Amino acid sequence: MLQRRRLRGRRRLRRLRRIVNEAPRLGVGLSYRPSFRAELFAARARVDFLEIIADHYFDAPREKLDELDLLAAHFPLAPHGLDLSLGSAEGLDPAYLDKFAALVDRLDPPWWSDHIAFTRAGGVSIGHLAALPRTQEAIDTLARNVEQARRAISAPLILENPTEAFPAPGAEMDEPEFVARALGACDCGWLCDVTNILTNAVNQGHDWRAELDRWPWPRAVQAHFAGGRIARDGRWIDSHDRPAPPEVFDLLGELSRRGALRGIILERDEDMPAFGDLLAELDRAREAIA
Amino acid sequence: MTLAETQAELARLFTMRAARGQQAPDGLTSEIERFAKGLIAKRRLDVAKWLPLTAKVLGPALGAQLREALAEPPPGARADALALVARLQTAREPPWIGELAAYEGEFLRAWAPQARLALRFYRWPVPRIAERLAAGEAVIDDAPSPTLALWARPPGGWLRHWWWAYGGQARSV
pLDDT, tens digit, for every residue of B133-149? Predict the structure, then answer.
């Protein structure tokens, strides 16, 4: 029994080393959107890598897959999923997992990612990420689903901390502890969304600077950053439709000092600015981590 | 409550107006309502991505049209877009909005790897209207003009599209 535990422990350590220490440094890049494809190729040298939304290439027509091959020929790609629903108590959708596995096979990326969240429950597809209740049961469920995903996809999986519209009922721990324990239980690297950390801190009335030592920085592999809107009641809305505010770059700097970050991605989904403005944000991220 | 029960309850509350009217966990009513509104806003943005020209023409009226068209629970962005297309078939302002939505909807239906062949007839020259809208031009003076449009995707191939408007030249896209 003890020997089996030791073996499992060694295997976990090897897996963690593989993703955190041996993953290539991809640099600073963009979450790809077709609307800026032409400008992207014109500014090829200023974008180190791309994250692609995996869901956009499932059941996709030939022209979309040709686009994917074109991107893969010019940039390192990291697929990012939105709807695997790794936190669902009812388990994973095998058809969705198969599509994700086929995409990862096609791209052979250094890692792939999805969220510490659920998008399906009780036969209902929510259509968006919903935060998990911060409980041990949720962590166990997540770990079970991650193990199932690993059996289908051998490339390393990293998990993203989502925004929490509100803490779901029955919370047994705070967010930094939940993320740290979830990543530990799943034995995964961290896709640290710095904007989500700040958004949750502001909306739940926490001081993010006071909590800095409690996040699992050594597990950070990739970061997301984005800007959003501030609602009339002062809440931050993670809308990905504005330039990132200064606090985001402060936290990126902290993350870079505390973890072995391999890549940073700017997410911009709405109100797309001139492509030069996106490149300027990438430069600002590079300065923040220098 | 188990995790499965909590998640199922939250999913129902997030996506079904009637469920929110009946019950919500103590102290979370406003949070759940806010999240549900955010989901509706996201569905609107997703529909606008699938039907960009229709959304552009509708402008602020898109929200009102969608409210009537959106099913509960959410069937997915493409199904939302097709539901809006169906709803707009009775809309008359501008007079070609239903046909424009149907025209964009055909591209959405063709968004799949399978082979496809579709031939559609329109009373208005909606492909030409679509081109002008995409170029940022105002479309206020178009007259009805019988139009045929063809979509063809060979097995494993790219989608091809042709259209012919009465009194105009055939176009291939």
Answer: 999 988 766 789 999 99
- Sorted by where each begins, the domain ranges of chain A are 2-289
Residue of A nearest to B3 (CA): A89
Q: Is the pLDDT of residue A179 over 80?
A: yes
Instruction: Decide: helix, strand or coil at residue B139.
Output: coil
Asked if B31 lies within 8 A of A166 by C-beta distance, the reply is yes
The CA distances from residue B142 to A103, A198, B91, B127, in Å, are 45, 50, 17, 12
Whether the CB-CB separation of A197 and A208 falls below 8 Å is answered with: yes
Nearest to A122 among B12, B35, B156 (CB): B12
Burial class of residue B26 (count of CB atoms within 10 Å of its CB; 0-12, 13-18, 19+): exposed
Q: Using one digit for the tens of pLDDT, what is the confidence trace for A194-230?
A: 999 999 999 999 999 999 999 999 999 999 999 999 8
pLDDT digits (tens, 9 = 90+) for B67-124: 889 999 999 999 999 999 999 999 888 999 999 999 999 999 999 999 999 999 999 9
- Judged by average pLDDT, the poorest of A8-17, A122-131, A158-167, A168-177 is A8-17
Chain A contact set for B34 (CB, 8 A): 165
Determine the 3-state secondary structure of B152 from DSSP.
Answer: strand
Domain span holding position B13 = 3-172
| Beta-carbon separation of B42 and A128 below 8 A | yes
- Distance, CA of A211 to CA of A200 (rounded, Å): 12
In angstroms, what CA-CA distances link B138 with B25, B53, B128, B135, B147? 49, 12, 12, 9, 20
Number of domains in chain B: 1
Residue A163 CB burial class (10 angstroms; 0-12, 13-18, ≥19): buried
Q: In one letter, which amino acid is A280?
A: A
Q: Which distant-in-sequence residues (6+ apart) come within 8 Å of A105 by Cβ? A: none
Q: What is the fold, at CATH topology level, of the domain defined by A2-289?
A: TIM Barrel (3.20.20)
> Which 8-state DSSP code applies to residue A188?
-
Determine whether A69 is exposed, middle or buried from the number of CB atoms within 10 Å of its CB (0-12, 13-18, 19+).
exposed
